[in-house]
Amino acid sequence: MNYYLTGIEGMPKLLECCGDPMQYFKRNLYPDRFHELYQQNVQTFDAIENGYNSVIDKDQFLLNMAGALVEYAKAQTDACKRRSAKDRRMMDLSMAMVTFVFPMILEYKGNSSKPLADKLVGAWRETFPKSALETATFEEIEQGFHKKFCYITTAVCRTFGKPDDCYELTLLRNYRDTYLSSLPGGREMIQEYYDVAPSVVKHIAQREDSDEIYRSIWENYLSPCIRMIEDGQNEACRQRYEEMVRTLRGEYLYH
Protein backbone atom coordinates (compact mmCIF):
# COMPACT_ATOMS: atom_id res chain seq x y z
CA MET A 1 0.00 0.00 0.00
CA ASN A 2 1.16 3.52 -0.80
CA TYR A 3 0.59 5.06 2.62
CA TYR A 4 1.20 8.62 1.44
CA LEU A 5 -1.27 8.42 -1.45
CA THR A 6 -3.92 6.68 0.65
CA GLY A 7 -3.61 9.34 3.32
CA ILE A 8 -3.71 12.26 0.88
CA GLU A 9 -6.80 10.85 -0.84
CA GLY A 10 -8.47 10.00 2.45
CA MET A 11 -8.05 13.31 4.27
CA PRO A 12 -10.68 15.29 2.29
CA LYS A 13 -13.09 12.38 2.77
CA LEU A 14 -12.93 12.90 6.55
CA LEU A 15 -14.70 16.21 6.01
CA GLU A 16 -16.78 15.21 3.01
CA CYS A 17 -18.37 12.23 4.75
CA CYS A 18 -19.74 14.41 7.57
CA GLY A 19 -22.43 15.87 5.32
CA ASP A 20 -24.73 18.04 7.42
CA PRO A 21 -23.14 17.84 10.90
CA MET A 22 -26.12 19.42 12.67
CA GLN A 23 -28.41 16.63 11.48
CA TYR A 24 -26.67 14.21 13.82
CA PHE A 25 -25.58 16.64 16.51
CA LYS A 26 -28.15 15.40 19.00
CA ARG A 27 -27.64 13.43 22.16
CA ASN A 28 -29.39 10.30 20.86
CA LEU A 29 -27.79 10.36 17.38
CA TYR A 30 -24.25 11.63 17.80
CA PRO A 31 -22.49 8.56 19.32
CA ASP A 32 -23.72 6.10 16.68
CA ARG A 33 -23.01 8.52 13.83
CA PHE A 34 -19.54 9.22 15.16
CA HIS A 35 -18.61 5.55 15.39
CA GLU A 36 -20.08 4.89 11.94
CA LEU A 37 -17.92 7.62 10.36
CA TYR A 38 -14.88 6.55 12.34
CA GLN A 39 -15.11 2.99 11.00
CA GLN A 40 -15.51 4.32 7.47
CA ASN A 41 -12.19 6.17 7.79
CA VAL A 42 -10.00 3.76 9.75
CA GLN A 43 -8.09 2.85 6.58
CA THR A 44 -7.04 6.49 6.20
CA PHE A 45 -5.87 6.66 9.81
CA ASP A 46 -3.96 3.38 9.38
CA ALA A 47 -2.20 4.72 6.28
CA ILE A 48 -1.26 8.00 7.96
CA GLU A 49 0.01 6.21 11.05
CA ASN A 50 2.11 3.77 9.03
CA GLY A 51 3.44 6.55 6.84
CA TYR A 52 4.21 8.77 9.81
CA ASN A 53 6.13 6.01 11.57
CA SER A 54 8.21 5.24 8.48
CA VAL A 55 9.11 8.66 7.01
CA ILE A 56 12.06 10.78 8.06
CA ASP A 57 10.42 14.20 7.75
CA LYS A 58 7.37 13.59 9.89
CA ASP A 59 6.36 17.24 10.12
CA GLN A 60 6.22 17.67 6.35
CA PHE A 61 4.33 14.42 5.98
CA LEU A 62 1.61 15.65 8.33
CA LEU A 63 1.60 19.14 6.81
CA ASN A 64 0.82 17.56 3.45
CA MET A 65 -2.01 15.54 4.99
CA ALA A 66 -3.48 18.61 6.67
CA GLY A 67 -3.09 20.62 3.48
CA ALA A 68 -5.13 18.09 1.49
CA LEU A 69 -8.10 18.50 3.81
CA VAL A 70 -7.87 22.29 4.06
CA GLU A 71 -7.60 22.63 0.28
CA TYR A 72 -10.81 20.66 -0.04
CA ALA A 73 -12.54 22.97 2.47
CA LYS A 74 -11.32 26.06 0.64
CA ALA A 75 -12.58 24.71 -2.68
CA GLN A 76 -15.96 24.15 -1.08
CA THR A 77 -16.23 27.74 0.13
CA ASP A 78 -14.76 29.21 -3.05
CA ALA A 79 -17.44 27.44 -5.08
CA CYS A 80 -20.16 29.45 -3.29
CA LYS A 81 -21.02 32.54 -5.33
CA ARG A 82 -23.06 34.46 -2.77
CA ARG A 83 -21.59 35.72 0.48
CA SER A 84 -24.44 34.23 2.52
CA ALA A 85 -23.92 30.82 0.93
CA LYS A 86 -20.17 31.03 1.53
CA ASP A 87 -20.69 31.90 5.19
CA ARG A 88 -23.19 29.08 5.63
CA ARG A 89 -20.84 26.57 4.02
CA MET A 90 -17.98 27.79 6.20
CA MET A 91 -20.06 27.25 9.34
CA ASP A 92 -21.04 23.75 8.21
CA LEU A 93 -17.41 22.85 7.57
CA SER A 94 -16.26 24.33 10.88
CA MET A 95 -18.96 22.43 12.75
CA ALA A 96 -17.95 19.20 11.01
CA MET A 97 -14.31 19.75 11.97
CA VAL A 98 -15.10 20.32 15.64
CA THR A 99 -17.71 17.61 16.10
CA PHE A 100 -16.44 14.81 13.86
CA VAL A 101 -13.07 15.30 12.12
CA PHE A 102 -10.93 16.24 15.13
CA PRO A 103 -12.62 13.68 17.39
CA MET A 104 -12.13 10.93 14.77
CA ILE A 105 -8.44 11.74 14.40
CA LEU A 106 -7.88 11.78 18.16
CA GLU A 107 -9.95 8.63 18.67
CA TYR A 108 -7.38 6.67 16.67
CA LYS A 109 -4.80 7.31 19.41
CA GLY A 110 -1.78 6.68 17.20
CA ASN A 111 1.61 8.37 17.29
CA SER A 112 0.41 10.59 14.46
CA SER A 113 -3.00 11.50 15.90
CA LYS A 114 -2.28 14.49 18.13
CA PRO A 115 0.42 15.94 15.83
CA LEU A 116 -1.94 15.65 12.86
CA ALA A 117 -4.73 17.41 14.74
CA ASP A 118 -2.34 20.21 15.67
CA LYS A 119 -1.15 20.58 12.07
CA LEU A 120 -4.78 20.75 10.94
CA VAL A 121 -5.55 23.53 13.41
CA GLY A 122 -2.61 25.54 12.12
CA ALA A 123 -3.40 24.98 8.44
CA TRP A 124 -7.09 25.76 8.99
CA ARG A 125 -6.39 29.03 10.80
CA GLU A 126 -3.86 30.06 8.16
CA THR A 127 -6.37 29.48 5.37
CA PHE A 128 -9.37 30.81 7.30
CA PRO A 129 -7.91 33.56 9.55
CA LYS A 130 -11.25 34.37 11.17
CA SER A 131 -11.66 30.82 12.41
CA ALA A 132 -11.08 29.96 16.05
CA LEU A 133 -11.30 26.19 15.82
CA GLU A 134 -9.79 24.05 18.54
CA THR A 135 -9.57 20.29 18.89
CA ALA A 136 -11.95 18.15 20.93
CA THR A 137 -12.21 14.43 21.64
CA PHE A 138 -15.28 12.26 21.23
CA GLU A 139 -15.51 11.90 25.01
CA GLU A 140 -15.47 15.68 25.54
CA ILE A 141 -18.20 16.23 22.97
CA GLU A 142 -20.37 13.35 24.13
CA GLN A 143 -20.09 14.48 27.75
CA GLY A 144 -20.97 17.96 26.59
CA PHE A 145 -24.47 16.85 25.71
CA HIS A 146 -25.01 16.10 29.36
CA LYS A 147 -23.54 19.17 30.98
CA LYS A 148 -21.19 21.45 29.05
CA PHE A 149 -22.45 22.86 25.77
CA CYS A 150 -23.16 26.26 27.23
CA TYR A 151 -19.48 27.10 27.56
CA ILE A 152 -19.75 30.78 28.37
CA THR A 153 -22.80 30.42 30.57
CA THR A 154 -21.19 27.53 32.44
CA ALA A 155 -18.03 29.56 33.06
CA VAL A 156 -20.08 32.51 34.31
CA CYS A 157 -22.20 30.37 36.61
CA ARG A 158 -19.12 28.76 38.10
CA THR A 159 -17.89 32.24 39.01
CA PHE A 160 -21.02 32.51 41.17
CA GLY A 161 -20.53 29.02 42.58
CA LYS A 162 -23.47 27.53 40.69
CA PRO A 163 -23.40 23.82 39.71
CA ASP A 164 -23.69 22.51 36.12
CA ASP A 165 -27.32 21.57 36.66
CA CYS A 166 -28.38 24.87 38.21
CA TYR A 167 -31.66 26.53 37.28
CA GLU A 168 -30.07 29.14 35.02
CA LEU A 169 -28.05 26.68 32.95
CA THR A 170 -30.96 24.28 32.61
CA LEU A 171 -33.25 27.11 31.47
CA LEU A 172 -30.78 28.40 28.87
CA ARG A 173 -29.98 24.93 27.54
CA ASN A 174 -33.67 24.20 27.12
CA TYR A 175 -34.08 27.52 25.29
CA ARG A 176 -31.18 26.62 22.98
CA ASP A 177 -32.45 23.09 22.25
CA THR A 178 -36.10 24.03 21.67
CA TYR A 179 -36.74 27.61 20.59
CA LEU A 180 -33.36 28.69 19.22
CA SER A 181 -32.57 25.53 17.24
CA SER A 182 -35.97 25.63 15.52
CA LEU A 183 -35.60 29.17 14.14
CA PRO A 184 -34.51 30.09 10.61
CA GLY A 185 -30.87 30.97 11.14
CA GLY A 186 -30.89 29.38 14.60
CA ARG A 187 -28.73 26.55 13.41
CA GLU A 188 -26.11 28.98 12.10
CA MET A 189 -26.09 30.87 15.37
CA ILE A 190 -25.57 27.66 17.36
CA GLN A 191 -22.75 26.63 15.00
CA GLU A 192 -21.06 29.99 15.45
CA TYR A 193 -21.37 29.64 19.20
CA TYR A 194 -19.76 26.18 19.17
CA ASP A 195 -16.99 27.59 17.00
CA VAL A 196 -16.03 30.56 19.15
CA ALA A 197 -17.24 29.92 22.71
CA PRO A 198 -14.51 27.50 23.90
CA SER A 199 -11.79 29.88 22.72
CA VAL A 200 -13.55 32.86 24.31
CA VAL A 201 -13.65 31.08 27.66
CA LYS A 202 -10.00 30.05 27.30
CA HIS A 203 -8.91 33.64 26.60
CA ILE A 204 -10.95 35.08 29.47
CA ALA A 205 -9.66 32.45 31.89
CA GLN A 206 -6.09 33.58 31.20
CA ARG A 207 -6.83 37.12 32.35
CA GLU A 208 -6.38 38.31 35.93
CA ASP A 209 -9.75 40.11 35.81
CA SER A 210 -11.66 37.04 34.57
CA ASP A 211 -14.13 37.14 37.49
CA GLU A 212 -15.02 40.75 36.70
CA ILE A 213 -15.47 39.90 33.03
CA TYR A 214 -17.78 37.01 33.84
CA ARG A 215 -19.82 39.17 36.21
CA SER A 216 -20.18 41.76 33.45
CA ILE A 217 -21.37 39.07 31.04
CA TRP A 218 -23.91 37.98 33.63
CA GLU A 219 -25.23 41.48 34.23
CA ASN A 220 -25.29 42.61 30.61
CA TYR A 221 -26.38 39.45 28.82
CA LEU A 222 -27.24 36.31 30.75
CA SER A 223 -29.38 37.72 33.53
CA PRO A 224 -31.47 39.75 31.04
CA CYS A 225 -31.78 36.64 28.82
CA ILE A 226 -33.07 34.57 31.73
CA ARG A 227 -35.68 37.20 32.60
CA MET A 228 -36.78 37.37 28.96
CA ILE A 229 -37.21 33.59 28.74
CA GLU A 230 -39.20 33.57 31.98
CA ASP A 231 -41.43 36.34 30.56
CA GLY A 232 -41.91 34.53 27.24
CA GLN A 233 -39.84 37.11 25.30
CA ASN A 234 -37.97 34.51 23.29
CA GLU A 235 -37.13 36.74 20.32
CA ALA A 236 -35.74 39.48 22.55
CA CYS A 237 -33.60 36.86 24.24
CA ARG A 238 -32.32 35.67 20.88
CA GLN A 239 -31.22 39.17 19.96
CA ARG A 240 -29.43 39.67 23.27
CA TYR A 241 -27.83 36.22 23.07
CA GLU A 242 -26.58 36.87 19.53
CA GLU A 243 -25.21 40.24 20.62
CA MET A 244 -23.30 38.52 23.42
CA VAL A 245 -21.67 35.98 21.08
CA ARG A 246 -20.61 38.59 18.53
CA THR A 247 -19.36 41.04 21.13
CA LEU A 248 -17.28 38.48 22.99
CA ARG A 249 -15.91 37.13 19.74
CA GLY A 250 -14.71 40.59 18.77
CA GLU A 251 -13.25 41.39 22.19
CA TYR A 252 -11.46 38.16 23.04
CA LEU A 253 -10.49 36.43 19.80
CA TYR A 254 -9.06 39.09 17.53
CA HIS A 255 -7.33 41.57 19.85
Secondary-structure blueprint of this entry?
Blueprint: H1 3-16, H2 30-40, H3 42-54, H4 58-78, H5 83-108, H6 113-127, H7 138-147, H8 151-159, H9 167-182, H10 186-205, H11 210-230, H12 234-252
Helix pairs in contact: 1-3, 1-4, 3-4, 4-5, 4-6, 5-6, 5-10, 8-11, 10-12, 11-12
Quick synopsis:
The protein has 255 residues and is mainly α. It contains twelve helices and no strands.
Give short descriptive properties of this protein.
255 residues; mainly alpha; 2 domains; 12 helices; 76% helix
Could you give the distance between the termini? 47 Å
The biggest beta sheet is recorded as:
none
Number of helices: 12
CA-based gyration radius = 19 Å
Quaternary organisation: single chain
Overall body shape: elongated
**Overall pLDDT, averaged?**
85
Element order, helices and strands?
HHHHHHHHHHHH
Q: What is the helical fraction, as a range of percent?
A: over 70%
What features would you describe in this structure?
76% of the residues lie in helices and 0% in strands. By secondary structure, it is mostly helical. α1 (3-16) packs parallel to α4 and α4 (58-78) packs antiparallel against α5 (83-108). The longest helix is centred in the middle third of the chain and has 26 residues, at 83-108. The protein is elongated and about 65 Å long. The N and C termini lie far apart (47 Å).
